[in-house]
Amino acid sequence: MGATQAVGRVTELWRYPVKSMQGEQVTSLELASGGVVGDRAFGLVDAATGRLLSAKSVPALFEAQARTVGEPAGGPGGGPGGSVLITLPDGREVGSDDPDAAAVLSAWLGRDVVLRRSGDELGDGSIEFEMRPEPDDDGGELFAWPAREGTFLDSAPVHVLTTASLATMGAVQTESVWDVRRFRPNLLIDTDGIGGFVEDEWIGRAVAFGSSDAVLSVGQACGRCAMPNRAQPAVVGGSADRPALPRDIGVFRALTAEHGNNLGVYADVVTAGPIAVADVALLRD
């Protein structure tokens, strides 16, 4: 196994039931071989183009909140079953099982869309979404990018971020709000005052969690797209109220200047199992 070193504790856990909508902060997550159970379990697909919608090119998606109903299922780490409830900006709610879900969501976005479950009809193939080459240019030409095979994920199954990285960037760019919601990780790990981009040092190594069997293999740094720059609505309820986030191109520009536009790391699941808030993160050689 090699040496084991405690590098922090899990302080926040997040799951995003519908791709690019507001996620849900939870006290525990279940890791399966493909990723977080219930994460990006659903997505909106443009009926005309067959492409997956993303807030990279459709910022309005950020204005809706999605939450799991009952036990999570689906997504990269789960099988069929499970459902989600979407709250639109005007307060209306639509469930993934509602027969008029597509009509309601289409009217909201002003385009014909269907709500699809991750994995439906994808098999081992992939679906494309659209983005722009420059994160600070919302007028640039769109190009298609494939999601991870068989899922609605952009890249790796699990995204990990530390309080150290957020604090480091907060000290560099004091005018910006370095709220974890801008970066949409699954795990936020509190490194207890250690500074710098700590998780970069985990690349190529494994991270285990407390007494759980869950183990992640950290593969690469997370390059950022346009989404951290987007405005986001306030969050009321849950574990804590959070203020609205303004649109802020300064986030991208500061990250680019300071750290090559990278923040956080991507990881694969080595061993499935549960992760809970307050679990100790153990770095292994």
Structure keywords:
285 residues; mainly beta; M1 Pyruvate Kinase, Domain 3; seven-stranded mixed β-barrel; 3 helices; 11% helix
SSE order, as H and E? EEEEEEEEHEEEEHEEEHEEE
CATH architectural group: Beta Barrel
Helix content: 10-25%
Cα-based radius of gyration, to the nearest Å = 18 Å
Topology:
Elements: E1 4-15, E2 24-26, E3 28-32, E4 35-36, E5 42-46, E6 65-69, E7 83-87, E8 93-95, H1 101-109, E9 113-117, E10 128-131, E11 143-146, E12 158-162, H2 163-172, E13 187-190, E14 206-209, E15 215-223, H3 249-259, E16 262-271, E17 273-276, E18 280-284
Parallel strand pairs: 12-13
Antiparallel strand pairs: 1-2, 1-13, 1-18, 3-4, 3-17, 5-9, 6-7, 7-8, 10-11, 12-16, 14-15, 14-18, 15-16
Structure description:
The chain is mainly beta and 285 residues long. The chain has a single domain, classed as PK beta-barrel domain-like (M1 Pyruvate Kinase, Domain 3, Beta Barrel). It is 11% helix and 33% strand. The chain has helices at 101-109, 163-172, 249-259, and strands spanning 4-15, 24-26, 28-32, 35-36, 42-46, 65-69, 83-87, 93-95, 113-117, 128-131, 143-146, 158-162, 187-190, 206-209, 215-223, 262-271, 273-276, 280-284. It has a seven-stranded mixed beta barrel. Strands 4-3-17 form a three-stranded antiparallel sheet, with no helix packed on it. It has a three-stranded antiparallel sheet with strand order 6-7-8, covered by helices on one side. Strand 3 and strand 4 form a beta hairpin. It is globular. The protein starts with a strand and ends with a strand.
